[in-house]
Structure formats: structure tokens, C-alpha cells
# Entry
Amino acid sequence: MSSSAYDPGKAGAKMDFKDAMSYGDYLHLEPITTAQHPLSDAHDEMLFIIQHQTSELWMKLAIHELASAREQMNAGNMPHAFKMLTRVARIFEQLNGAWDVLRTMTPSEYTQFRDSLGPSSGFQSWQYRMIEFVLGNRNPNMLKSHAHDPDVTVLLEAELKRPSFYDDAITLLYRTLDGEGAAPPPPQLEAPHEANEDIRNHWKVVYENVADYWELYELAEKLVDLEDYFRRWRFNHVTTVERVIGFKRGTGGTPGVSYLKKMLDVQLFPELWHVRGDL
# Structure
């Protein structure tokens, strides 16, 4: 070893971790970096696995942030809720970037290992389903693909039994504008949220009186920002799938691109988008 080579230890960096926690220890990197098990010899299967594994990690963080944001909003700690909602939007920005990497895989490369997936599909991601349920896009039929996992089913069913994040935001909207005894439209616990004219009119009051209802105005814009990135993620998903498999059926049996395009029409917070045309 050259005596002139830079030695971080001499500058104070800890170099011996025999009896101390290392970077890998803290992050439990060994089980994470050894959790990739391609079922074929195709070079691109590793890309496919890592892209989806990292997406699931980002979704785990999104669920963590949404749960805390809902708790903070319901407790009246709006600045904390806003910070977390901003983070969720940026998580989906990060997830959008992942599609750019996956799109470097060509149809010919994907077909080399596609059969190895069997009937597994991103459609079965319970964490993605949880994000949709939390935000208000609720369809109990989607529970069927998770019935094989009782623990996951319990978590998803529990979310369906409580108001969504958007339902809680609407309750806050009505109580602020109409008083503590205000009765907003009842939440749609086991169905997608449908546009409601009265809710739209309440948001219109906020947008026309920003100085008087600044926190509600900021909440509305944080939700729009989140859905903006979420829609981009869906669009990039469609584009990537169409680019790689065309209009074939998905491995999980869905119609593939046609199903994903249908999802592009879903609005999580419809009143916040429709009210823009009223201003």
C-alpha cells in the first residue's frame, strides 16, 4: 500500500467495525441486496426485479407518510401534515423516474424472462392498493387478489372501514366553513369517491377567499400536487407497458394497456379539479 495514498482513518474516520454498528448493519443491507433471485438467465430480469423492489420500498414510505399526515391533519397540526404531503408527492416523482430506467428494456429482452413471472403482476401490489384506499379510490373487489394473505387482507379491510384521507379533509373543510356541527356528505367507505357539487361549492369558497382560509387553500393545493404526480406515475406506467408488451394481456390476467388507460380517468379529488373551471 502506497504511503502517499489517502487514509481516511488518519483524518478521524472510523475504520474498524468489529465491535461497532456499521452502515450495512444499520440498514440491514445484506438481506436487501441478496433478495434478488432471477428465475432465468436473462440479463434484464435483474433490472425488472430491482425496479419493482425499490418501488415497493418507496410505496412503504408513502404509506408511512400518509398515515402520519392524516393523523397530524386530524389533530390540527397542519404545517406538519403539509410537510408530509409534499414528501409523498416527491416520492411519486421518484417513482416516475424509475419508469425511465425500466424503459431501457426492449420487448425482445422482456420476452426472454416474462414466462418466469407466472401469474404474478404489479396489479397484486397490496401497498399500491393501500395507497389508493387511503386516498379514496376504493373498490372492495380488489381485495380478492390479496385473499391468500390474511394479514394483508386485514390491513386493507381496516382501511376500507374508516374514512379516507380525502374524507377527513372534507370534514375539516365543512367544520371550518360551517362550524363544528357541520355535516359533510357521508364518506363512501367501500366505493370510489364520486364528485359532489356541494363539496365543490365549499372548495370554491376557499379558493375565492384565500386570505380567510389559507390553511384549507394550502391543503387543497398539496392534494392537487400529490394527485398530479400520482397521475404522471399512472401515465408513465401505461407508456412503459405499451412500449414493452404492446397490447398483450398482463401476466396477472388483466387486459394490460387497456386496463391501465381506464385507470387514467380516475380522479382522486375530483372537486379540487372541477372547481378550477368555476373561478
